[in-house]
Every structure is written in C-alpha cells, then in structure tokens.
UniProtKB/TrEMBL annotation:
<keyword id="KW-0067">ATP-binding</keyword>
<keyword id="KW-0813">Transport</keyword>
<dbReference type="GO" id="GO:0005524">
    <property type="term" value="F:ATP binding"/>
</dbReference>
<dbReference type="InterPro" id="IPR027417">
    <property type="entry name" value="P-loop_NTPase"/>
</dbReference>
<comment type="similarity">
    <text>Belongs to the ABC transporter superfamily.</text>
</comment>
<dbReference type="InterPro" id="IPR017871">
    <property type="entry name" value="ABC_transporter-like_CS"/>
</dbReference>
<dbReference type="InterPro" id="IPR050763">
    <property type="entry name" value="ABC_transporter_ATP-binding"/>
</dbReference>
<keyword id="KW-0536">Nodulation</keyword>
<dbReference type="Pfam" id="PF00005">
    <property type="entry name" value="ABC_tran"/>
</dbReference>
<protein>
    <submittedName>
        <fullName>ABC transporter ATP-binding protein</fullName>
    </submittedName>
</protein>
<keyword id="KW-0547">Nucleotide-binding</keyword>
<dbReference type="InterPro" id="IPR003439">
    <property type="entry name" value="ABC_transporter-like_ATP-bd"/>
</dbReference>
<feature type="domain" description="ABC transporter">
    <location>
        <begin position="10"/>
        <end position="243"/>
    </location>
</feature>
<dbReference type="InterPro" id="IPR003593">
    <property type="entry name" value="AAA+_ATPase"/>
</dbReference>
Length: 319
C-alpha cells in the first residue's frame, strides 16, 4: 500500500440509478466512502441494490445522478480509471464451461497482459489460488459449485487489482469452499493491502471477515460503521438513538411514541427509542419521519447484527 495515497479510496456521492419499468430506483441517493485496505461488507437482502451498485461503480451501467471519486479524483462515466485498478468477481459465474480451468485462466490473462512472462506468472498465481489440483485440466462444466467459485475468484484477481469487488462470492457452495474463499480474501488483504467491497446477505460472513459494514436496503444505506462499533452497539437490545436533520414536530413525537415502547428526547433532534417486544421495524419509523418532512442524519442501534438488520429493514436477510 502506498502511504501517500488518500485514506478514502472511493467516495460515492448521492448516486441514484433507476432501471426502466421499475417504480422504485434500484439505488436511491446513496452516499458511501470506502477506506483503503479495508474489507467492507455491503450487507443487504435480495433486490437491495448491491449488484446494481457494483455495476454503476464499474461503469457497466450509467448512474442517473451522483458522482464517484477515486483517490479524490472525479471519475467520468466510463469509469476507466477505476477499471484500471479494480477487479470484479461477478455473482454469476463468468467462465467458459467447455474450457478447462487452466484454459480459462489463460484466456482471461491473455486479455489483460501483453507480456508473455507476466501472463504466465499471473496464470500460475491464479492456479495456485484456485487450488483445483488435477481438476485444473478438466472442463469447468464438470466442476462443483465451490470449484467454480474459486476459479471465478482467481480470474477476478488476474489483473492484480488494488480494489476488489466481490458480488456474493459464496452463494450456493459448501461450507468448506466458503471458508476457503473467506480465508483467501483475508490473506490477500494482509499480503497486498487490497481494499475489498464484499456484497452478501450472509450476516455471519460479515462478522467473520469484514472491518466495516454498510447495510443496504431498497437502494439506500441504512447504516455504515466499523463492524466492531456496530457489534458493540448491538449489546443493549432494542435500544435505538436517532439524530434528525430538523426538530421533531409534536405530532411526529406522538406517532413515534405510539409505534415504540418508550421515547425520550435529549433535544428536539435527538430521539432515544426503545422498541416494543414485537418491534416496530425501523422502516415504519423512518416512514413516519419522512412523512413529517424530516430525515434521519445518524442512527445508533443496540441489538445483534441479525436483529439490527431486521429492525432496519423490517425483513429477514434470508428469503
Ligand atoms: N438489468 C436490470 N434491469 C432491470 N431491473 C434490474 C436490473 N438489474 C437489477 N434490477 C432491479 O434492481 C433492483 C435491485 O437489484 P440488484 O440485483 O441490484 O439487487 P441485489 O441486492 O444485488 O440482489 P441479489 O442479491 O438478488 O442479487 C431489483 O428490483 C432488480 O429487479
């Protein structure tokens, strides 16, 4: 890692993206910073907008609004500067099934490196990382889900990225392969100082792997903090502190009071809520706040990451 480079690698500023024929935007005025050398878990249920966000970042689809800065420099719509230093491991396996693992590595390394020596070195590194043994020379069509995922990861690393985007890289694989992938990612960060954005809907992966967590739902970031902070705050079950952009109206306070067990206010903008046992989901509270023309600036929550997610979104992570 270059110490002279800014601490914030990526700065996403008010990104919005709608797909045609969809009533709601897939990404809704989303702002997020990614710090260098961190593994950031982007945690959200199916349809939350994780893949769309990575596609916008990599320039695979344009954003409707908003800007992205890489190392303090604004990116143009092609995202060329980002693509030059980033690797994407897509959610859907992007390999040629009729080619062997080795042939896939050779094909993708050939697209990236003109120098034959470098190409060979990167292929060897990829083969080592995927750890496929004799299967390396068998067609990918015969691989298990875990073997395909491992090769998919190795291909994503062939360009020696500084920044790695992983889109649900462990979906549908056995626990052993999952551990293998998590272990490799940890190792890459240790050895190369890689910055990783890891999308998942598995809470336990975030807890096991990530330094920071950003919870995404309906295209919005509901919480972004260091994992340790999120977990430490999770200890006082059912407690939530909201900081509003503007003073809460009397009618809003009454509605929030009705929706939660207790409500106290340090000042007209800071609200401490204790949820009822069954719990009004945070999405309900946010809707009340929005309806009142107000907005949440900051949110601290006390619960496990699992119940934290439930309360933030009103839904379970797993369908
Ligand atoms: N190419 C597309 N065309 C139209 N709508 C899309 C497209 N890609 C995603 N969407 C929609 O955008 C929303 C967000 O989807 P996205 O795939 O980004 O979420 P996700 O968090 O990655 O979910 P998953 O875990 O299921 O992949 C969904 O409503 C989805 O149907």
């Amino acid at each position: 890692m270059n110490d002279k480079q800014p601490e914030v690698v990526l700065n996403l500023d008010h990104i919005t993206k709608s797909w045609p024929d969809k009533a709601e935007p897939a990404i809704d005025d989303l702002s997020l910073t990614i710090r260098r050398g961190r593994i950031v878990g982007l945690l959200g249920p199916n349809g939350a907008g994780k893949t769309t966000l990575l596609s916008v970042l990599m320039g695979l689809t344009p954003a409707d609004h908003g800007t992205i800065q890489l190392n303090g420099q604004k990116l143009d719509r092609t995202r060329q500067a980002l693509r030059a230093i980033a690797g994407l491991v897509p959610q859907h396996i992007a390999l040629y099934p009729s080619l062997s693992g080795r042939e896939n590595l050779a094909f993708f390394a050939g697209l990236l490196w003109a120098d034959a020596g470098k190409r060979r070195a990167m292929m060897d590194q990829g083969a080592q990382l995927a750890d496929l043994g004799e299967n390396l020379d068998r067609p990918v069509a015969h691989y298990s889900g875990g073997q395909k995922r491992r090769l998919n990861l190795a291909v994503g690393l062939l360009g020696e990225p500084e920044l790695l985007f992983l889109d649900e890289p462990t979906v549908g694989i056995d626990p052993q392969s999952r551990n293998f992938i998590l272990e490799r990612i940890r190792q890459l960060r240790e050895e190369r100082g890689l910055t990783v954005v890891y999308t998942t809907h598995y809470m336990e992966e975030v807890e096991a792997l990530c330094d920071d967590v950003a919870i995404i739902d309906r295209g919005r970031i509901l919480l972004h903090s260091e994992l340790a902070t999120a977990l430490a705050e999770a200890r006082g079950v059912g407690q939530m502190r909201l900081r509003l952009a503007g003073p809460a109206s009397a009618s809003l306070l009454a509605e929030l009071q009705a929706a939660t067990a207790t409500l106290s206010t340090a000042d007209s903008r800071q609200l401490d809520l204790c949820l009822k046992e069954a719990g009004a989901p945070l999405s309900t509270l946010l809707a009340l706040i929005e309806k009142d023309g107000n907005r949440v600036e900051d949110l601290r929550y006390g619960a496990s990451l699992e119940s934290l997610f439930l309360s933030l979104t009103g839904r379970a992570l797993r369908d």
